[in-house]
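Prompt: I keep going back and forth on a fold encoding question. Comparing notes only helps if you start from a blank page. Show me how you would write down a chain together with its backbone fold. Please set it down just below, with no commentary around it:
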Amino acid sequence: MEKSDSEAGISAVADDNIGKILFLSLVAALGGFLFGFDSGVINGTVDALQSEFNSGDVGTGFNVASMLLGCAVGAFFAGNLADKFGRRPAMILTAIAFIVSAWGSGISSGSVEFVSFRIVGGLAVGAASILAPAYISEIAPASIRGSLGTLQQLMIVIGLFMAFVSNYFIAGAAGSAHEVFWFGFDAWQWMYWIEIVPAALFLGSLLVIPESPRYLVAAEKEEEARNVINSLSTAGNADEKIADIRSTLEGGRPSMSDILHKHTGKIHPLVWVGLGLAALQQFTGINVVFYYGATLWQAAGFTESTSLFSNVVTGAVNIGFTFVAIALIDRLGRKPLLLVGALGQAVMLGIMAYVFGTAGVAESGSLQLGPTTGTIALVAANAYVAFFAFSWGPVMWVMLGEMFPNRFRGAALSLAGLVQWLSNFTITMTFPILLDSIGLGLSYAIYSAFGIVAYVFVYTFVQETKGRTLEDMSREAEEAPA
């Protein structure tokens, strides 16, 4: 079978271009590192914040979940800003917001001030969550687009891991997150300030990368687009590639109204699929493990130190199995990984639900897990993270970055990002309430059921995107029935 002109173009990458494409992808994925670090850093500060701000269960839940409101807003507007001003300027604003949030969260003296700065961080995380996949998918060759897109998730989980490690060592050096660490400031404050270093690196790196060629064509800056394409490919057919991109951008610069199907005026079916993927990634409960890991294991009877160390182990598992996704996504495809991951997560969550639901309760109210049941719970929790790490973690973001047509990629990503973060907020905000009312067992049973729903959804509605160019998929989507 002959390759399309577009696939023979930008995917015909010479060896000396791979390094540049990888560098650009890594720079964009630094936003993912900050996404992960900013999301995970609060894990080790929950109890300290509750004590510092004198907040109850609902207040603590909002301190944790407040960032996610900013994430929803940031994700929604980032795609539109990226369509209007470019991917690179939008990412630069994101880096600045990360710096402001990290500093402000650490200097906060009350819940209102803290929540305000966490919302700023949320704007940055939400924006980074969709800008990096969009940028990477638009500069990557079709043959390795999945692997490069997975770098975003790899950097997210590395960011989470580094937040866990940082929290563990800072709390250990100070005695606990409540204690004074350096220069008269508490350990929990330094847990946030550490993030300023990678955020500054992200900002500096963004100043040296080019704009996405697909955005440049949409903005009628074809000479700049030609230069970028030529720097990424030695195929020598930049004009053909530009014409191919232009053919999928009828109507000029993209806008939010482009998500409507051109024949029916209704929201394009592909957008609904993206929204479903975004929501289901969260409803299987992954961020309960990452945001409330320390609290969860203490509720199960572990000490603070052991709980924080368990987070470090979980973070390492997350990183290791994300490499599995990088190795498999362009070989097996996106859909098989999503199917296996959904079932695996459902089974592991079911095991955890059984262990927690049948555990004894101490006089203090914490669960009592014996050596055997405690080990089973830890193994199941980490196996659950492993299934997520090689499937729904990276693959959802890869698919959102590549499945939508060029004409409304930014707009569709904005909506998908909004739904993903609102789902995240819902799960994060309700977990402390579920924990207090129905316990860990039934809570995890609910998340397990969503794993089954995710399997059925993917099997029924998701189409494979492996090895296909963005332009070929754009044309097919435009011609698909509503």
